[in-house]
Amino acid sequence: MQILIRNIDRKLTQPEIVCLFRKYGRVTSCVIVKDEKTGESKGFGFADMPKLDEATKAIEELNGKKLGDSILRVKRAASSTVSKKAPKVEQPERSGRFDRSDRSERSEEKKRPPRASRSTKRR
Predict the structure, then answer these.
(1) Which domains does the chain have, with CATH numbers?
(2) What is the pLDDT of residues 92-113, one digit of tens each?
(3) Does the reported pTM lie above 0.85?
(4) Strand 2-6's sheet: what is its strand order?
């Protein structure tokens, strides 16, 4: 399970966070998100714990716990948050559904029949 850790004291290090979560089970990875320019902690991160029961116990025990100068906020990471964390894969830019080079192929394809208007549809 991917766990979102917010409100991390900016003085804490990644190994300290890993130690904290290892009390509840195996931690496969831990990342503290850092500012690209300064390299300083942004105050949040992620931990991966493969066993659901261990991850749930860690969330219950660590959410609201004071660590350093901050009170942690710990919860299961939303899938949208996880995808933002993952490195982006560059996609070739396209202006529309087809490249201009595909126009000749598209003109040879069968055209779709026009959609029926609402008044002609059955109710």
Answers:
(1) 2-77 (3.30.70.330)
(2) 444 445 444 444 444 555 556 6
(3) no
(4) 29-34, 41-48, 2-6, 73-76
